[in-house]
Specification:
single chain, about 375 residues, alpha/beta, Rossmann fold, 2 domains, 7-stranded parallel β-sheet, 6-stranded parallel β-sheet, 16 helices, binds uridine-diphosphate-N-acetylglucosamine, binds uridine-5'-diphosphate
């Protein structure tokens, strides 16, 4: 029996890998082993609980305010023992985090085959997003199998010289996850607080935005909220203490925004589906909001998800206070500009990515 080991460690990887774990576990010809690095703790636990996934191994490496060095060294050291004990035929990693890159590196050192889920996303600027663009390119070099979410991602891999028969366009597994999370009959006390006001959904955490860019982002948001008393914002804040400090400084005493702890993925998807506008620097949310036709202002200088920009739902606004202020105001005040962005599109898949990946692994 083929032994497949899935390794992940952060919230977004878990959201996109847990549906795959559950699909692989249904397949009789495969033995599935789950190892979490614990790069995240509470935010990872939330997702494992939602999808009912119990890891076989947990490296528990998270430290408060961890550096890239802490994460890399601790995973590399602990991963060796797990890989030597499990001896998997294939290790599946996801996307572009430190967990992803370091696990792939450990597999390379032990000459174990790697399958890369969500392969081929690119900005071709290794400092944006940082360090994720480097991570995914490096994992691309190591991987034997590339599970690309879109045709464009496949194109990137082909241009880089990967062999066509190692690349599979599967769709993004996050769309599989969303098939189960969004429901019509959904209630939450935060949505009661919003009432009939327009709801703005906010998240922010990118490493390259910590510091001045994040101050600018939050100041722009604050200014727009002050000028629009009929608007309410919900911001489930990342657990990173550096993010929390900046948010407290810039948004702490604003009555129109509720800064709350990270919410469960079921809540998150339902909030996205019900918001008026989303402002984010997240990767995953850029894939989710287009399905609900919710305009997203992407507070980053680059995106590896141009499909959503092309579809018209995403607008890359950077991190300058003036530009975010201008676009946020325009979407609130100009109905035509809003309607131009607010139409549903789903460039990231049909919700059957996990089945496709499982079929490929079986065969
Ligand atoms: C990581 C990924 C990023 C991904 C993000 C998703 C890397 C280099 N970055 O960044 O690609 O977009 O996860 O959220 O891999 N913390 C907690 N509890 C948690 C999670 C985090 O307290 O459950 C705090 C800790 O103080 C931790 C800090 O957040 O040190 C930062 O976590 P880390 O994984 O290093 O970076 P992220 O910004 O989350
Ligand atoms: N998310 C969540 N709870 C929250 C905020 C986000 O479940 O409080 C989900 C969101 O729906 C998306 C993923 O987490 O699926 C995005 O994670 P994040 O922004 O941390 O990472 P990125 O996608 O940027 O790597």
């Amino acid at each position: 029996m083929k032994k497949i080991m899935l390794v992940f460690g952060t919230r977004p990887e878990a959201i996109k890998m847990c549906p795959l774990v559950n699909e692989l576990k249904k397949r009789k010809t495969l033995q599935t082993v789950v190892c979490v690095t614990g790069q995240h703790r509470e935010m990872l636990e939330q997702v494992l609980h939602t999808f009912g996934v119990i890891p076989d191994y947990d490296l528990s490496i998270m430290k408060d305010s961890q550096t890239l060095f802490d994460v890399a060294v601790n995973i590399l050291e602990k991963m060796k023992g797990v890989l030597e004990e499990v001896r998997p035929d294939i290790v599946l990693v996801h996307g572009d985090t430190s967990t992803t890159f370091v696990t792939a590196l450990a597999c390379f050192y032990l000459q174990i085959a790697v399958g890369h889920v969500e392969a081929g996303l690119r900005t071709y600027n290794i400092y944006s997003p940082y360090p994720e663009e480097f991570n995914r390119q490096a994992v691309g070099i190591i991987s034997k199998y590339h599970f690309a979410p879109t045709a464009l991602a496949k194109q990137h891999l082909l241009q880089e010289g990967k062999k066509e028969d190692t690349i599979f366009v599967t769709g993004n597994t996050v769309i599989d996850a969303m098939r189960y999370t969004v429901t019509e009959n959904y209630h939450h006390q935060e949505l009661d607080w919003v009432g009939d006001n327009r709801m703005i959904f906010i998240t922010a955490h990118r490493r390259e935005n910590l510091g001045e860019p994040m101050h600018h982002m939050f100041r722009a948001i604050r200014k727009v909220l002050d000028e629009h008393p009929d608007v309410r914002a919900i911001y489930p804040i990342h657990m990173n203490p550096l993010v929390r400090k900046i948010a407290e400084e810039e948004l702490g005493n604003c009555q129109q925004i509720h800064i709350i702890d990270p919410i469960d993925v079921v809540d998150c998807h339902n909030f996205e589906a019900r918001c008026h506008i989303c402002l984010t620097d997240s990767g995953g949310i850029q894939e989710e909001c287009p399905s609900y036709g919710k305009p997203v202002l992407v507070m980053r200088d680059t995106t590896e998800r141009p499909e959503g920009i092309e579809a018209g739902t995403l607008k890359l606004v950077g991190t300058s206070e003036d530009t975010i202020y201008e676009w946020f105001t325009r979407l609130l005040d100009d109905e035509e500009a809003y309607n131009k962005m607010a139409h549903a599109s789903n460039p990231y898949g049909d919700g059957h990515a996990c089945e496709r990946i499982a079929d490929i692994l079986e065969n």
